[in-house]
TrEMBL record:
<dbReference type="GO" id="GO:0016995">
    <property type="term" value="F:cholesterol oxidase activity"/>
</dbReference>
<dbReference type="GO" id="GO:0004769">
    <property type="term" value="F:steroid Delta-isomerase activity"/>
</dbReference>
<keyword id="KW-0753">Steroid metabolism</keyword>
<dbReference type="GO" id="GO:0008203">
    <property type="term" value="P:cholesterol metabolic process"/>
</dbReference>
<keyword id="KW-0153">Cholesterol metabolism</keyword>
<keyword id="KW-0274">FAD</keyword>
<dbReference type="InterPro" id="IPR000172">
    <property type="entry name" value="GMC_OxRdtase_N"/>
</dbReference>
<feature type="domain" description="Glucose-methanol-choline oxidoreductase N-terminal">
    <location>
        <begin position="155"/>
        <end position="178"/>
    </location>
</feature>
<comment type="similarity">
    <text>Belongs to the GMC oxidoreductase family.</text>
</comment>
<protein>
    <recommendedName>
        <fullName>Cholesterol oxidase</fullName>
        <ecNumber>1.1.3.6</ecNumber>
        <ecNumber>5.3.3.1</ecNumber>
    </recommendedName>
</protein>
<keyword id="KW-1207">Sterol metabolism</keyword>
<keyword id="KW-0443">Lipid metabolism</keyword>
<dbReference type="Pfam" id="PF05199">
    <property type="entry name" value="GMC_oxred_C"/>
</dbReference>
<keyword id="KW-0560">Oxidoreductase</keyword>
<dbReference type="InterPro" id="IPR007867">
    <property type="entry name" value="GMC_OxRtase_C"/>
</dbReference>
<dbReference type="InterPro" id="IPR036188">
    <property type="entry name" value="FAD/NAD-bd_sf"/>
</dbReference>
<keyword id="KW-0285">Flavoprotein</keyword>
């Protein structure tokens, strides 16, 4: 059903990696709101006292990561007043040290989501517990959701994962994309939506001659040489970090971020995170408002007579303060609800709605088809003469590409380990092809979703990573490091950065992310991708959201 609102005509074809005037207006709104301490951000927030929360919004987007940001922009451009609800905070206010985000080496409360101690991916060095720090509980930017045998790292705040990720902006190999999502027209994806996503995200590439000469990428060049000795090729990987800025960091012209070890707890400079791209553009439409520290807890149909949601939806929203206390619980109604809370968040909300009887007819596929994109971290110990350098940029730009290996396909990002001293370690995040899938069950006692994933399901991933890195070690006379991941393990297979699936496209939803049998209910994030995509996932999540939103706006909103 059309909302009867005229679309705002904007041609995004000409948006460049640099902020446009419209994006700058949105970014300014974000910044002003942050300075004034608002939890409600719109274009007018710089001038108003904080207005009361609206009990009704024509469209609501839950979360503010990649899928959510695309949804907010496309709804805003279509003229639909849209409310974005994000459980984390807006990351634009400097702390006492003058910085928005805390240092990686000396993390403080800004680092992690309500923890008393950090939980970094690499927990030890030389088996010593020297990495993690005691911190005060606070809505920090990185969360680690622990589910027994598998833990999942996610970003919290306006921009979701874009605030904490490594910025690697990789388009998957087309044959694998078609294998994973056979129902999606690859021609349209590779001709239109991937290029659109890359343009909007501000994807750029490292200058090759600078890469070959700078000390900041010595660690990548060393790993490339070692891979080549094993007959393996590497590829350059694009990124959303501004490489011109990075070169100026190296020249000492601007404050350092990627060259100061910043990444998993946020980048103070250089990174084109979503608050500077899609979300800034969304706010600049004047139709989009973001409310932070607002956690959606439950959803139900507005029209209690029917279960399908034809009359819209009611959301229960918990307003959090900086201590994590729920200060208010509001109900917001909406005609159209877009779930962009990420693979874990969206799946939990829909599973809870189905299992508590709020939306009992949600498809049985909700909660199924989850995977960790085959993530395994591992590290090698180099010879003393093979120094990786004390200076390391946190933004990876090279990957070992063995994806066409018939038995053990692997795409391994050459990851930095910026400790400010020479450590002779080569670190990798291997993305492997793992056919295993997990599923979520609803636990009524805790009112939460539980991931069912057992350690033995990692075996195909570990076997693939072992095969690749044993080969590299053999060719170079090197060995694995055992001291970095706890428990003398060579392969860290107990956590992932790439949660995917839970509400898979074409199974839990129709071919465009519409929840089956539930008008006005849409899934827009990484939960649509069935567990694996073979490369780092955010470009795919963004491009898929662009494809789906184009159709939804045309047919359901303007049609
Ligand atoms: P996501 O970005 O996770 O956003 C979900 C948002 O929803 C978050 O802001 C949540 O706080 C919010 N939320 C959740 N539940 C609720 C609720 N109930 N109410 C209100 N708000 C809620 O979703 N990917 C790459 O492609 N390249 C990389 O280099 C890369 N590096 C990574 C490094 C790290 C440390 C991490 C953690 C991830 C990395 N990723 C990388 C993965 C990437 O960030 C991830 O796939 C996307 O962020 C997922 O996008 P979604 O839109 O699904």
């Amino acid at each position: 059903m059309a909302l009867g609102i005229r679309p705002v005509l904007v041609d995004d074809q000409h948006m460049t990696p640099h902020l446009t005037r419209r994006q700058l207006m949105g970014a300014a709104a974000l910044q002003t709101a942050a300075v004034l301490g608002f939890t409600r951000v719109g274009l007018s927030s710089a001038h108003a006292v904080e207005p009361p929360a609206a009990p009704h919004a024509p469209a609501v987007v839950i979360g503010s990561g990649y899928g959510a940001a695309v949804a907010a922009l496309r709804l805003g451009l279509a003229g639909v007043p849209t409310l974005v609800l994000e459980m984390g905070r807006l990351w634009d206010t400097a702390g006492p040290d003058g910085k928005v985000f805390c240092p990686t080496i000396t993390p403080d409360r800004r680092s992690m989501w309500f923890r008393t101690r950090t939980e970094a991916p690499l927990s030890t060095f030389l088996w010593l517990d020297v990495v993690n720090r005691r911190i005060d509980p606070y809505p920090g930017v990185l969360d680690r959701v622990n589910y027994g045998d598998m833990s999942v790292y996610v970003g919290r705040g306006v921009g979701g994962g874009s605030l904490v990720n490594g910025g690697m902006a990789v388009t998957p190999p087309r044959p694998y994309f078609s294998e994973v999502l056979p129902g999606v027209d690859a021609e349209a994806m590779y001709g239109t939506y991937f290029p659109r996503a890359r343009r909007m995200l501000g994807v750029n590439e490292v200058d090759r001659s600078w890469f070959e000469s700078t000390p900041w990428y010595r660690f990548s060049r060393v790993s490339r040489t070692h891979a080549a000795r094993a007959g393996l090729g590497t590829v350059f990987v694009p990124n959303v970090y501004d490489f011109d800025y990075m070169r100026r960091e190296a020249a000492g012209e601007v404050p350092r971020s990627a060259l100061a070890g910043e990444v998993i707890y946020g980048n103070n400079h250089g990174k084109r995170s979503l608050d500077r791209t899609y979300l800034a553009a969304a706010l600049a439409t004047g139709r989009v408002t973001v409310e932070t520290m607002s956690r959606v807890r439950a959803l139900r149909p507005a029209n209690t007579g029917g279960t399908g949601g034809a009359g819209g939806y009611v959301l229960t929203v918990e307003r959090l303060d900086l201590s994590g206390r729920v200060t208010a619980v509001d109900e917001i109604t909406t005609g159209r609800l877009f779930l962009g809370a990420g693979s874990l968040g969206t799946t939990e909300l829909l599973l809870r709605a189905r299992e508590t009887g709020a939306l009992p007819d949600l498809d049985p596929e909700v909660g199924r088809g989850w995977g960790h994109n085959g993530n395994v971290m591992t590290a090698r110990a180099n010879h003393l003469w093979d120094t990786v350098g004390a200076q390391q940029s946190t933004m990876p730009v090279l990957g070992i590409d063995d994806w066409n290996n018939p038995t053990h396909p692997v795409f391994a990002e050459i990851a930095p380990l910026p400790m400010g001293l020479e450590h002779w370690i080569s670190l990798y995040l291997a993305i492997t092809k793992n056919p295993e899938r997990g599923h979520f069950t609803y636990d009524a006692a805790t009112d939460s979703a539980r991931l069912r994933w057992t350690r033995d399901q990692n075996e195909p991933s570990v076997a693939a990573a072992r095969s690749l890195f044993d080969r590299i070690n053999r060719a170079n006379g090197t060995i694995h490091r055992y001291d970095l991941f706890g428990g003398n393990r060579k392969f860290a297979d107990d956590f992932t950065y790439h949660p995917l699936g839970g509400c898979v496209l074409g199974r839990a939803t129709d071919g465009y992310g519409r929840a089956k049998g539930h008008p006005g209910l849409y899934v827009v994030d990484g939960s649509l991708v069935p567990g694996s995509i073979g490369v780092n996932p955010f470009v795919t999540i963004t491009a898929l959201a662009e494809r789906n939103m184009e159709r939804i706006v045309q047919e359901d909103i303007l049609g």
